[in-house]
Amino acid sequence: MIDDIALFIQIVKQGGLSSAAESLSLPTATVSRRLQRLEQRLGEQLLNRSARQCTLTQAGEVYFQS
Predict the structure, then answer these.
(1) Nearest partner of 21 among 46, 37, 2, judged by Cα
(2) DSSP bridge partners of 49
(3) How does pLDDT run across 14-61, given as a tens digit for each residue?
(4) CA distance 10 to 14
(5) Does an H or E element contain 26, and which?
(6) How far apart are CA 21 and CA 35, in angstroms?
């Protein structure tokens, strides 16, 4: 199974949770929960979520680039 870091990368590349969930054949709720789990482990919010889009936070940009 894809790990949470790879899931985060897929979310960024796909441009959102729903698109990532669809490309990975996972429920959107699972993708969201796993992203939240990663953010809790890191102690940082990685994405700003809205109804229509996800954008990287400053911490998310740094994490994505590394």
Answers:
(1) 2
(2) 54
(3) 989 999 999 999 999 999 999 999 999 999 999 998 777 789 999 999
(4) 6
(5) none
(6) 11
Locate 59 and state its tokens. 């911490």
Domains of the chain (ranges, CATH numbers)? 4-65 (1.10.10.10)
Look at residue 50 and give its three-state secondary structure: coil
Report whether 45 contacts 39 (CB < 8 A): yes
Residue type, 15: G
DSSP lists the bridge partners of residue 47 as 56
Compute the distance between CA of residue 66 and CA of residue 56 in angstroms, rounded to an integer.
Answer: 14
Contacts of residue 14, Cβ cutoff 8 Å, sequence gap at least 6: 20, 23
Tokens matching residue 30 = 């699972």
Could you tell me the two tokens for 41? 């482990």
